[in-house]
């Protein structure tokens, strides 16, 4: 092959010419350092900037049989709305909620977290805003943010596009792990309120908005604010209050369901034992306006709403029936959602009945009127 002699590039192709700005990445790190450092507990070794984060696990020696718990997740297509609105400091709260609260539901205390941001172009202020939100949420959950990565992917993502993911590690005593093995028929299901849509079902939300032409700056009377402000409401992070409740009321909570992708029944079924069904009463709480407005706007069938969105229920606790009042008193806003029963097949024919969801051969759950 013969190369042309009229190549006008004076010094060849550079990394910057390929779309990667190393200096912008360095500026982003400088902007986020203070927020990240604020999450560091005495167990964090080495500070910010190493190839790997270090965490002193000496405290684990005090456990009789420590079980390490880990979880990883992202925020999903909610980031597309953040990008449209050019608001980036709330997405980090969504990320921490999705990751850390999956650890808390088994009774584990989250210890540390790492994050990953992929973007088409590093805009230092934008990256710093994302990480600042992650750090703020980590602080509220008592979790150290000990590492992360920002990767610039020109040509794969648009200049203003990004995605985020994270992973966390926690610890729990083996004999204190919460789960279906503790639940019995007669347990009471207690609901904890969600802050809104959280971070699930946004593909449905975006499809509804695209089909109807509703803009994010539209003022919606039922919300008392714009549509964009409502749908970007950050995910509630339950870690701190839930860990306090578990500690203050040992033995009261048998299992916890984090209501994420798949909706209420599918996630509750995962934390109940085979042969039981969690029966939840729709009349026990008021569904927040955002679910009704979007559902009615898109003419979304009730069953589809309940299998996509949390409907205002962020967590569900299976509780010892003799300790229900204690739990309700300990968590403001909690309410009695339903109960766990022996599954005698009475609900099996109902289309709202869910059994063995998420690949777990566990119990069943249903929403009833």
From TrEMBL:
Residue ranges of domain PurM-like N-terminal in the record: 65-172
Tagged with keyword Acetylation: no
The EC number(s) this enzyme carries: 6.3.3.1
Chain segments annotated as coiled-coil in the UniProt record: none
GO terms, biological process: 'de novo' IMP biosynthetic process; adenine biosynthetic process
UniProt-listed InterPro entries: PurM-like_C_dom, PurM-like_C_sf, PurM-like_N, PurM-like_N_sf, PurM_cligase
Keywords for this protein: ATP-binding, Cytoplasm, Ligase, Nucleotide-binding, Purine biosynthesis
SUPFAM superfamilies: PurM C-terminal domain-like, PurM N-terminal domain-like
Keyword Coiled coil attributed: no
GO molecular function terms attached to this record: ATP binding; phosphoribosylamine-glycine ligase activity; phosphoribosylformylglycinamidine cyclo-ligase activity
Subcellular location per the Swiss-Prot or TrEMBL entry: Cytoplasm
Gene Ontology CC annotation, any one: cytosol
Family: Belongs to the AIR synthase family.
HAMAP family, sorted: AIRS (MF_00741)
Name of this chain's protein: Phosphoribosylformylglycinamidine cyclo-ligase
Species of origin: Brevibacterium jeotgali
Gene: purM
